[in-house]
Amino acid sequence: MTAKIRKLIVQVDETRQEMGRDIDPPTRKALAIAVIDNPFAGRYVDQLDELIDIGEELGALLGDKCVQALGIPPGGAHSYGKAAIVGEAGELEHAAAILHPKLGAPLRRAVEKGAALVPSAKKRGGLGTAIDVPLGHKDAAFVRSHFDAIEARVSDAPRANEIVVAVAVTDSGRPLPRIGGLQANEIQGEDGLR
Predict the structure, then answer these.
(1) In Å, how far from its chain's centre is CA 96?
(2) Of 42, 47, 91, 186, whose CB has the highest number of CB atoms within 10 Å?
(3) At what angle do helices 92-99 and 49-70 cross, to 10 degrees?
(4) CA-to-CA distance for 144 and 90, rounded, in angstroms?
(5) Is residue 163 a contact partner of residue 38, using CB atoms and an 8 Å limit?
């Protein structure tokens, strides 16, 4: 593996009750976070290929970790999202290099299919900085019941020369969705939109 991982965190958020109503089955979101060394911290580099390759590695690793944490087959995943926080010695383009060119393909393999774009967010920050990992249905971006997010935060990261990379996967939409729109059981899954 090219990525130098200092810390790996995997967690599952399970909502069992909302507004006094039982959620059965519970809605679950898995979050996998890698705290990695930024090989380009403190200097400008034209070619970010090393970070692009790290993104590909992390898409597979973190996507698989999320699916395993949920205890579902890959096809049982509903939503996904990705985010990164760059330490102060890095730049936003470092996060973009990890998240955009190659992270998506292995994440899509981890969740089986994934016709829709993977929602993403990026920012710069210091120790304990939080970021909301946006979520959207993996096969149809217009499924409103799956518009959501989960917060990612590591108390001792990112250090100045690090990047926090987070991937989230769910096995359902929000609890008690009722704002209409395309329903998950109506997805065609061909164009990534509907």
Answers:
(1) 13
(2) 91
(3) 60
(4) 35
(5) yes
